[in-house]
Sequence to fold (342 residues):
Amino acid sequence: MKSLYTFFFLLFCSTGLYAQFKLSGKISHYTGREQLLINIPIAYGYDEENNIHIPVAKNGAFTITIPVKRAKFASLNFQRTFHWLLLNPGKNLTVALDENDKKISFVSGTAQTENALLDNINLEEYPVFLQDERLYSNPDYATMNARVVRPYFAQRDSKIARVNQAPVSPQDKKQIIAEIKYNTLNNFYELVNLASTGRATVGRVITGLFSQTSTKPEVFPAGPQYYTFANNYLGYMERKAVAQAKSQNLKHNQLIPYYGITPDSLDAILTKYGEPYLRFIGATKFLPDGVTEQLTYRQIIHSFNDKNRVQIEILAAAFIKKFPASVYNADIRKKVNLLKNK
Fold:
């Protein structure tokens, strides 16, 4: 009940008047042991408080109406398997699940074609190069480019071609293709944490990709893969600034590149307010305001769930100052007061 209330509260705050997406279907061999959930992220990631429980009848039938004003990506979760859906206002979709396997079938509905396409391209397919350390832990850039970068971009382009050839609306094509592109960048960014050797080569690859990518989303409101990219971009800029500061041997009172703060100020921020506040500073400098608003609100929710009163107070004050007319401000003030009272 709590998660359902949270979902509708957030959605009403951000949309006001809304249209609806109707999802229905049936689970074969349904035993009643497994829950059926749908999750719409605030920006990206999987947060349990965004889960909506879908009631399922004894015969496995279910139906739910979801308020959506704009196109939204959501994950349908059954038996710990996630199926990405594209919810467009005013549309409907009927699916079939089977408790004996982890597959989904798109039976009918006005949203059938785009969702079958989304499932078919396997948007979050785990790249082969992330499964084999020998492919990415290589100090030679030419080898890395030949074994990893070019083949993976060819795979990306193949998926984009399939979307362009599909009989779906131009807007749906833009939405899905944008998510494919940002997912590709996000998978490359995983190498920052995985590569044990050849880190300079990985850094060169990431710099080449991220420096050529605009932080302005190709489609707005953007999907979760874009917001993941936006958050990764902030991490990329932090690493870039630190590397330049070290190479320039900055003094304690000199300004760190891109951020315009001194090393002493940076240490004070991290010690007193933590990494989320530094991410907020970076977001205001490198990302569009609409993106900064979504990412920071998500972080405030996380700070609230972690009961981090100092962090949420600092972020909330900065957020409200930056976005005085945000639809999230009432909820943010409520959360700050709840932690204060506790």
Observations:
- The chain is about 50% helix and 15% strand.
- The two ends are 22 Å apart (CA to CA).
